[in-house]
Write a structure and sequence with these properties.
Layout: H1 12-25, H2 36-43, H3 47-59, E1 63-66, E2 70-73, E3 78-81, H4 88-94, E4 99-109, H5 113-119, E5 124-133, E6 136-145, H6 147-153, H7 163-170, E7 175-186, H8 189-195, E8 202-212, E9 217-226, E10 230-233
Parallel strand pairs: 3-10
Antiparallel strand pairs: 1-2, 4-5, 5-6, 6-9, 7-8, 8-9
């Protein structure tokens, strides 16, 4: 195991925190992280350094301390870093889990009024899928496309394929940026059944406008994620005056 670098300007407890998170993401720690003593011996650091590193991970929701039993990896295993444009498939893979999908319906529709206003289109190509992580239902995804793009996508494997990859690799669309809104809410009875949760279960809702380099709206994405399995994270820094 690579040791920490005491000459690095990054404090030792932050180095250790980053090491532990990396090992969690890579799947080396599946259920819990090593004890304080094991971490002290493995990385040749003090108890206070270990405790500070673990405290950071606890505050960020990555691990949870259980009195008398140890420090366990949080049940919210999938963490989507806001600020980077990545697919759900890629996010799930980075967390060491196997992504999956099941197509519920697709075709040309007259979208709801709020989608018409957001996209400026009276008709859209609609794709509804359930997303999975290690065969566990994770999210309901509703994706709206301009009809020409959606019709081309439908020629490929939209049941299990990664739509980001299909657009970039098969349709030659260069995705550039997105605007995203995150709220919380509840599911319809139908969607709760698809996610295998009660309809009183609180979910994380996200809406995203995805544009290409010309500024054209390529996709309007609406999804409901299980809040016990998925979390959004963002890194902030103080602006220098």
């Amino acid at each position: 195991m690579e040791k920490l670098n005491p000459k690095d300007p990054v404090p030792l407890h932050i180095q250790l925190r980053n090491k532990i998170e990396g090992l969690i993401n890579e799947g080396h720690y599946r259920n819990k992280i090593p004890s304080e003593r094991q971490l002290m011996d493995e990385y040749e650091v003090s108890r206070s350094t270990v405790r500070e590193a673990v405290a950071h991970l606890v505050r960020e929701g990555i691990v949870e301390k259980v009195h008398g039993k140890g420090t366990f990896i949080s049940s919210k295993v999938i963490q989507d870093w806001l600020g980077s444009l990545t697919s759900t498939t890629e996010t799930i893979r980075k967390m060491g889990m196997e992504p999956g999908a099941r197509l519920i319906t697709h075709g040309i529709i007259e979208p709801p009024e709020e989608i018409v206003e957001a996209m400026g289109l009276q008709k859209a190509y609609f794709i509804k899928r359930v997303r999975y992580a290690n065969d566990i239902p994770l999210a309901i995804e509703l994706q709206y496309y301009p009809v020409d793009i959606g019709s081309q996508l439908a020629k490929f494997d939209i049941d299990k394929g990664t739509l980001f990859d299909l657009m970039e690799e098969n349709l030659g669309i260069q995705l550039a940026e997105a605007e995203q809104l995150i709220t919380s809410g509840f599911l319809s009875a139908e969607d709760a059944e698809l996610l295998e949760v009660a309809d009183s279960f609180n979910v994380l809702n996200t809406e995203r406008k995805l544009m290409d380099h010309s500024g054209r709206l390529i996709e309007y994405y609406v999804a409901s994620f299980r809040s016990d399995m998925y979390s959004f994270r963002i890194k902030l820094s103080q602006r220098n005056s």
